[in-house]
Amino acid sequence: MRETSPVHVLAVALGSLIAVTWPLAIQPLHVLAHPLGEGNNHVWMLWRAFQAGPVANWPDGVGIPFMDVVNLPLGIPVLLHPALGHNAVVVGNLLLAFAGAWWLCRELGGSSWGALTAGVAGMAAPVLSGLVDFAITESLPVGWLALHMAALLRWEKTRAHAWWVASGLALAAFALSGWYHAFFGVVVEVPFAIWLVWRSRKPLPVLGQGALALALVLPRFLQFLEVKSMWAARFHGPSPFPPEFRPHWRQLPVFGTDVLNLVLPSVDTVVVSKSVYVGLATLTLALVAKERRLLLLVVPLWLLTLGFWLSVAGNTQVFGGSVTLPASWLVSAFPELGGLSHWHRAAAPASIVLAAVAGLGAGRLVERWPRTALVWPVVILLDSLLLSQTPWPRPMTDPASHPVYAYAVGTGALLELPFDNQPRPQFSQDLPRSSNLWQATHGRPVAENMEGDDALLHDDGVRGLHELCLELGPATRPVDWEAIGVDDVVVFPDKCTRPDDVRDELERQLGPGLEVEGAWLFSPREDVILSDP
């Protein structure tokens, strides 16, 4: 059977991309993320990274290091439109996953048709669909791990210095997508490097490319340490007592997922998807491969995916007691790892290696039955789209800000009540952090921050208004509007427990407001009379 051509590869990659992101192709100005996920704040963080000045938490900005700096070049379109930037990050990383799995399969000795299956398996990995749905952009760049491994394998064959340098750069890019990947990269790299040193008998280049990656990542790590205290509450070890039963074991893999979630298909979807489904089609093809022992490289990642305790169908009491797992041992030994609370994300880098090995299995079957060459990528695609927990067609979020902002008359800071950065009950239908997303469209400074304290809540008058909104107390004293420098006040009464009292208090302080599609607008500026724009 003749080799695939670049046209074949490009056609399959783009066709698979359209399928796994549908309906993005016809809604490019909507955010490819579930409205109840973290798309709002991830779009905001990407937009904020390209801004100058205090774009949030007026009047005191909080310097938060951007987590996934490797995604910044992909996110440049955010300068044109917030949704375009976020969607470019998603699309770019899915194409990168395809390319990484394709090349890694080829370097492992796979045929061109097998590599085509590997690319689809990498791009359509169900865990990536869940990450896209939940909008966890820092966990999407798994393609860099495959590119790193492929480049190092190419170096082993050619001994050209450029390839081990490229390998180190790709490993650094993988680590610079966030501290989860920095840690997961170590978990994969140690056995992979030992294997390559044993095969090549050349330890220095293998160690050198790791040192190059470390040198590139270290400055970002030191910058993170400067603000680590902002997330101090997350750095704690596992409870000595596992939960007796996890009622939402199919939906909520906090501190690790259930072992059955890895292999159980699902005809039902969840809100919001945190799929870790391996994909039975991909797994079966990987087990068919002659080189299936390569899966041993990522078995540690799958063990980490399970978190602190072994859980089977929600039960942590198995084999007559609770079984602690490697994540628990590591956090006990190294308490700093307690900050990695979402251990289920280890399934993402594992999926890219699984995809490459699945390509080897598909190539073996194509050798025997050449007419099945395109069957295997289609089967993998259908398995991912129809049998994971992620809805398909994919949920989308409209980034357009509330119409009330079109009536705002100032150019300075906005005070939005009640403050949106508040805890939500799990499975709540309240949209999280919509103010963050809207700021990326209206561009005005807001009196709220995504992390840390909300600056203006230190003002007694503003805090009183906020507490009045939530029925936590009366408005104790008037706000000194000139001192806090706010040009417009927006109130969302549907989020207030006592909306009438809030309106009465603001009318007493600022005069009549304007109601726009369920929101109220007030202006502290004496020279402004609110009217239609």
What structural keywords apply?
533 residues, mainly alpha, four-stranded mixed sheet, 18 helices, 4 strands, 46% helix, 3% strand, elongated
Uncertain segments of ≥5 residues (pLDDT<50)? none
What is the rounded distance between the termini?
67 Å
Helical content (DSSP H or I, runs of 4+): 40-55%
List the total number of helices: 18
Give the structural class. mainly alpha
Q: What is the CA-atom radius of gyration, in angstroms?
A: 25 Å
Spatial shape:
elongated
- Sketch the major β-sheet: 4 strands, mixed
Q: Work out the strand percent.
A: under 5%
Tell me about this structure.
There is one protein chain. This protein has 533 residues and is mainly alpha-helical. It contains 18 helices and four strands. The protein has helices at residues 6-21, 39-49, 82-107, 112-123, 126-134, 143-158, 161-175, 179-200, 203-226, 280-288, 299-305, 326-333, 347-368, 375-387, 434-442, 460-469, 481-484, 499-510; strands at 413-417, 486-491, 514-516, 519-522. Strands 1-2-4-3 form a four-stranded mixed β-sheet. Strand 3 and strand 4 form a beta hairpin. The longest helix has 26 residues, at 82-107. The model has no long low-confidence stretch (mean pLDDT 89).
